[in-house]
């Protein structure tokens, strides 16, 4: 085990900043203890797997402990992970709801994992399916095809798991993908990404639109998936998830009082460039709930097809 303490010079909502990295309550690579007072996160790194436990003292200092061959890499990147490189101070709100959220939640920042692969697989799994379906598939892949987390997290009851590596993903046979509820289109995209995973990490270095363009060179990775990765891997403040089933509707109701499509959302968010994703993030965490009409979308189970 190695440890690090870091005291940010800004207000920090530890659980709020890390929340986008969690893939549902049953995410095997994530665990929150004591209502978010301590967060355990398992990841892959260029040096190997790592488990990191993070908590905050009353004076604002973040205390982190790491296990595994990648622990040093993760702890070196702790400030970036928690938003030290983000610049929310330059953001200007153009809608009352967004201005109110920014005022009430000053500890929310955009963090950077500095790692594409761990964000790419769950993002592809979330393509064109419900969150319930995608999270179920992510759990299946982690529990059945990846390794136990380094350190005590791997030996806990129902211990944590490392996200599957590219090599482990390439070894999953077709029938096991079916058993995990992953259709052929998403399966092909994940396999294509695994074949060139080491090259895709350059997207973090490129950042912004250039980083997203690099990701979109992989068949099956479009604007939505690239944006979802960019938001987390390098804290891209302008990466809007165009093509999302829910976001345009929520943004529309929240900001202009009616549902929007992607074109309409592009127009409404135009004043926020180059921080359009930050504006959407404030809408998402503001507490706003859009009106509900009609039945909810029912998840499909590809294991029965």
From TrEMBL:
A biological-process GO annotation: base-excision repair, AP site formation
Source domain of life: Bacteria
Keyword Ribonucleoprotein in annotation: no
Gene Ontology molecular functions: alkylated DNA binding; DNA-3-methyladenine glycosylase activity; DNA-7-methylguanine glycosylase activity
Coiled coil: none
InterPro entries (alphabetical): Alkylbase_DNA_Glycosylase/TA (IPR051912), DNA_glycosylase (IPR011257)
Keywords: DNA damage, DNA repair
GO cellular component, one term: cytoplasm
SUPFAM superfamilies noted in UniProt: DNA-glycosylase
PANTHER family, per the entry: DNA GLYCOSYLASE, DNA-3-METHYLADENINE GLYCOSYLASE
Protein name (Swiss-Prot/TrEMBL): 3-methyladenine DNA glycosylase
Species of the source: Pseudonocardia halophobica
Phylogenetic classification of the source organism: Bacteria, Bacillati, Actinomycetota, Actinomycetes, Pseudonocardiales
């Amino acid at each position: 085990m190695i440890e690090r303490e870091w005291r940010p010079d800004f207000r920090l909502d530890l659980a709020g900043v890390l929340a986008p990295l969690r893939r549902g309550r049953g995410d095997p690579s994530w665990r929150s203890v004591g209502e978010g007072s301590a967060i355990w996160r398992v990841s892959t790194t260029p040096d190997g797997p790592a488990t990191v436990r993070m908590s905050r003292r009353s004076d604002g200092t973040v205390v982190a402990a790491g296990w595994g061959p990648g622990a040093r890499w993760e702890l070196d990147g702790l400030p970036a992970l928690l938003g030290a490189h983000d610049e929310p101070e330059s953001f200007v709100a153009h809608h009352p709801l967004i201005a109110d959220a920014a005022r009430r939640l000053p500890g929310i920042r955009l963090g950077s994992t500095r790692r594409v692969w761990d964000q790419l697989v769950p993002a592809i799994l979330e393509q064109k399916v419900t969150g319930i379906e995608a999270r179920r598939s992510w759990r299946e892949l982690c529990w059945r095809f990846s390794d136990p987390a380094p350190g005590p997290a791997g030996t806990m009851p129902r211990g944590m798991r490392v996200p599957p590596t590219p090599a482990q993903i390439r070894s999953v046979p077709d029938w096991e993908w079916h058993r995990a509820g992953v259709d052929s289109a998403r399966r092909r995209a994940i396999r294509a990404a695994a074949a060139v995973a080491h090259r895709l990490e350059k997207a973090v270095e490129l950042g912004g639109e250039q980083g997203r363009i690099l990701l979109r060179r992989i068949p099956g990775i479009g604007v939505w998936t690239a944006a979802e990765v960019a938001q987390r891997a390098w804290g891209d403040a302008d990466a809007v998830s165009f093509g999302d089933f829910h976001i345009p509707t929520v943004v529309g109701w929240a900001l202009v009082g009616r549902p929007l499509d992607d074109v309409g959302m592009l127009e409404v968010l135009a004043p926020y460039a180059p921080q359009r994703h930050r504006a959407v993030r404030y809408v998402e965490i503001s507490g706003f709930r859009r009106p509900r009409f009609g039945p909810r979308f029912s998840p499909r189970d590809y294991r029965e097809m």
